[in-house]
Amino acid sequence: MNIPSFIRGRQWLAFVLCLFALSAWAQEYPVKPVRSIVGFPPGGAVDLNARMLGQELSKLWGQPVVIENKGGAGSTIGAASAAQAAPDGYTYLVVSPAHAINASLYKKLPYDTETAFVPVTQLVSSPLVLYAHPSLPANNVRELIALAKATPRALNFGFGGNGTSVHLASVLFNQLAGTDIVYVPFQGGGPTLVAILSGQVQLMFGGIEYLNHVQAGKLKALAVTTTRRAPMLPNVPTVAESGVPGFAVEAWYGIYLPAGSPPAIVSKLNRDIVRAINSPEVSRRYAELGFVVVGSTQEQFSAFTRSEIDKWRAVVRSANITAD
C-alpha cells in the first residue's frame, strides 16, 4: 500500500524534531545532580580519581557530582548498582582493572560486563612497581629470576586480596618468567605493606604511593610494570625490558554509563571529562601523584577494556583462580 506523501512528510518532520530535541537535551545536560558510583570504600585510588574528577565536573557544569561509595565483592556491588540505574546520564561508574578482571574471576555476576555498560573514557593510568625487601639478594629482575630458579618456592609474593590486579600481576610474572614464587595473601594493601616492610614477605607488586619507603631505604624498586618507564621513576626499568618479554600491567581508571544511555549524552560526557582531566590544575595534581592523563575516545576505551578482559581471562583460567 502506498503511503500518502503528506504522511511521509509529517513522519520525516517528527523524526527531525526528535533529533533536535535530543541534541538540545545533550547540550543542556546536566540540569540536576549527577551520581558517581565507586565500587570501593573511601580513601583508595579509585575513590581519589572519582573525587578529583567530580570536583572539576561540578565546576564545569554548575551541578553537584555526588560520590557514592558502594564497596564490597571486588567492586561488583557498585557495578551492579550502576548497571541497574536509569540510562539517562545522571549515574556513571568509576572503574579500575578490577572491572575487567571480575568478568572471569566470578562464576556469576549480577550483570554482563561487556553488555551492561557503555564505555565513556579512560581517565588515567599508572604503573605498578615490583618492590623487594632490602634483604633480598637481588637488585633487578634478572637477578630475581636467577635467584628464584635456583631456590624454587623459597621466595614469596605478598598481595592483598584474591584476584586483585596485584595478585594477578604476581601470577603473570611467574608464568612469563618461568619462576615458582609462592603467593601469600593478606587482607588488603595495608597489611601487605606491613609484611614486606618487616621482611615477612620478600616481594610485592604495589602502587606508586609506596615510593616514599624506597626513598627511605625500607624497600627496593626492582621494576615498573608498564610498557614504558614511568615519568616518576626514569631510572627504574620495566619488567619487560628486564628479561620478561610480554609482561605489561597497569593501574587504570575509567568511566562507564549504563547500557542504553543516549549517544549524545555519552559523547558530551566524554568531551567534558577529557576537558576536566586536562585542565591545568587537575593534570598537575595527577602528575604529582604519578598518574598519566589519558582521556581516550569512546572507541579507544572500548577496545582497551576488551583487551584487558581478554588478557586477565587467560591468566585467571590458566591459574584456576576464582572469587566464588
Query: Any idea what the CATH architecture of the largest domain is?
Result: 3-Layer(aba) Sandwich
Shape: globular
Q: Could you report the average pLDDT, rounded to the nearest whole number?
A: 92
From the alpha carbons, calculate the radius of gyration and give it in angstroms.
23 Å
Number of separate structural domains: 2
Largest pleated sheet: 6 strands, mixed
Strand order across the biggest sheet? 2-1-3-10-4-11
Provide keyphrases for this structure.
11 helices; 2 domains; D-Maltodextrin-Binding Protein, domain 2; 6-stranded mixed beta sheet; globular; 324 residues; alpha/beta; 5-stranded mixed beta sheet
Structure description:
The chain is α/β, with parallel strands linked by helices and about 325 residues long. It has two domains: about 160 residues, Bordetella uptake gene, domain 1 (D-Maltodextrin-Binding Protein, domain 2, 3-Layer(aba) Sandwich), CATH 3.40.190; about 110 residues, D-Maltodextrin-Binding Protein, domain 2. Helix content is about 45%, strand content about 20%. It has eleven helices and eleven strands. A six-stranded mixed sheet has the order 2-1-3-10-4-11, with helices on both faces. A five-stranded mixed sheet has the order 7-6-8-5-9. It is globular and about 65 Å long. About 5% of the residues have low confidence.
Summed up, what is this model?
The chain has 324 residues and is an alpha/beta fold. Helix content is 44%, strand content 19%.
